[in-house]
Amino acid sequence: MGCTILSNQTQASAIKTASQASSSVMGCPPVTGSCRHCGAPLRHTFVDLGMSPLCESYLSASQLNQMEPFYPLHVLVCEKCFLVQLGEYVSAESIFSEYAYFSSYADSWLAHSRAYTEQMIGRFALDKRSLVVELASNDGYLLQYFVTAGIPSLGIEPAANVAAAAVEKGVPTLVRFFDQTMASGLAAEGKQADLLIGNNVLAQVPDVNGFVAGMKILLKPAGVITMEFPHLSRLMQENQFDTIYHEHFSYFSFLAVEKIFSAQGLTLFDVEELPTHGGSLRIYACHSQDRSKPAGPRVLALRTQEEASGLSQLDTYSTFARQVESTKLGLLEFLINARRAGSHVAAYGAPGKGNTLLNYCGVRTDLLEYTVDRNPYKQGKFLPGSLIPIFPPEHIRETKPDYVLILPWNLKDEIMQQLSYIREWGGKFVIPIPGVRIYE
Questions:
Q1: 94 Cβ partners below 8 Å, 6+ apart?
Q2: pTM, 2 dp
Q3: Would you call 377 helix, strand, or coil by DSSP?
Q4: How far apart are the C-alpha atoms of 128 and 152, rounded to whole Å?
Q5: Are strands 266-274 and 44-52 parallel, antiparallel or unpaired?
Q6: How far apart are CA 353 and CA 240, in angstroms?
Q7: Which of the four pLDDT bands, split at 50, 70 and 90, describes residue 144?
């Protein structure tokens, strides 16, 4: 399989104009506010992606002529604890009470979840006397494997439409937002967790201190917390700015998350670096008074690595905006040149990251004709902001585009295998992050 990497430089005057406009926006002073963890004033911009709609607010045809709300994507970094964060422009309740993301539509993520289940059962000797609780359990993509293994499980999921799919899988699920009050109530009922799980939820919590405090309440004295989230270090190294959206209030380095957990009486005793979502961390936490779980060598190694790479120095965060602008110009250069050459470009997927990318770059149907998605919930709707229509995957075979832009680039291998048939008519794949790459 051949791969072409396009230059991120362009001579097109239209792109130069976009660059100048973007630079002027990034030069704006940060909004006032205080760090959601330590309370220090927020005065330093990490990156400013302009204005964007909520990334999971897909539109029906009847909504296309209505006003669509846009909110700032201005990300700041705390000068004291180095937590990278976005302001809470929209409440979590308005975002997550009904949600369009169903985890089970990614085969590789299901395989990841199955492997995790086997690993945790073996490592922590979980059995029918244990209780596994997952926060933001989505459609039961993970807990279904614990249920199958005969281990009592409980999901907590605020989106009723998604939770219903979990219940159909046989996963007991409470439709609630998790907080300290709920944790105290469950603990009073004797429902503390031996294993407490949070996958890709910590970033989606505005009150991160209260959320972690609630986990401490819900955890048994000898219990274990595992959490997975995209690693800020990889986000910066791989230019993964499209993972920034309003649903993600915080972006974590290991150094920052260790401070957050420590402040609530929880110790990180192990950490794994994972390939999921473009590079994630899986942290393991226990009560600080639990002496049976001393910090392992991977904790010290990653802490040392992050300090050496400058993640505890403010200057390290100042160059990210220039990387982002370069990727924007490269994608626009490719799409404009393809349009001028008479080529047809479609996309695969309707993920949140894709909506950040398209809206920041100003891409509409003049440059990207449509996208497809396996999730029936999204089919027949339109992407927020860009108003690009969403079709079932079969639409690609019917229309035979010259290029397929893979928006969920973290699943590119799985998707390119699913769509390998596009090579029958000479179709090629395009990956936008960290820069435009073309796969034949």
A1: none
A2: 0.86
A3: coil
A4: 6
A5: unpaired
A6: 9
A7: very high
